[in-house]
Amino acid sequence: MRLWTLHPRHLDRQGLTGGWREALLAQAVLARRTKGYRDHPQLERFRDHGDPAAAIGAFLSGIALEASARGYRFDVSRIDRPLLPEDGAGELVLPFRIAPIEVTTGQVAHEWGHLRAKLATRSPGWLERWADVQTPDVHPLFEVVDGPIASWERP
Predict the structure, then answer these.
(1) Residue from 100, 114, 99, 116 nearest 149 by CA
(2) Alpha-carbon gap, residue 79 to 56, rounded angstroms
(3) What does the alpha-carbon distance between residue 4 and residue 15 come to, in Å, rounded to a whole number?
(4) pLDDT, tens digit, 9 for 90 and up, residues 111-152
(5) Is residue 115 a contact partner of residue 76, using CB atoms and an 8 Å limit?
(6) How far apart are CA 142 and CA 125, in angstroms?
(7) Quick one: 128 exposed, middle or buried, by C-beta within 10 A (0-12, 13-18, 19+)?
C-alpha cells in the first residue's frame, strides 16, 4: 500500500489509479470493514488524526479531483466523507475544514525519489514533465514541516 503524500498531479496514470484503489482500501481498513492491512504503517498518520474518517475522505477527494481534471471518472460516491467543492470542480486547497496532517521534508524527499524511480521505468515521458522540480507539491491534506523520513516509512 502506497498512500502518496505528494500532490496527485505528480502521479502518472498508474500512480493515480493505483493510489485511488489503495486509498479506498485504507478507508475500508479505517472504517473496520476489512480485516486485511489493519497494521499497515502508512495508516498511522490517518489514525493519529483527530478525525481519521474525514482525513481519509479528504485524501480520496484530492485524488478524485485530480482524476476529474484529467478526464477520468472515479466514483466519488465510494468516499465515506468526501470533501469536494460544491460544484464538483476546481482545485482542492486548504483549509479542508479539518486539521492538516504534518509531513516532514525528509518524507517528501524520500517519496519524490521513490516516485521518480518508478516513473523512470514505467512512464519516462511523465517523469520528463517534472524534470525541473526539486521540491514537489504535496497533497493539500498535508502540511510540510522540517524533519527526517517518517518513522512508519520503510526506506
Answers:
(1) 114
(2) 9
(3) 9
(4) 999 999 999 999 999 999 999 999 999 999 999 999 999 998
(5) no
(6) 27
(7) exposed
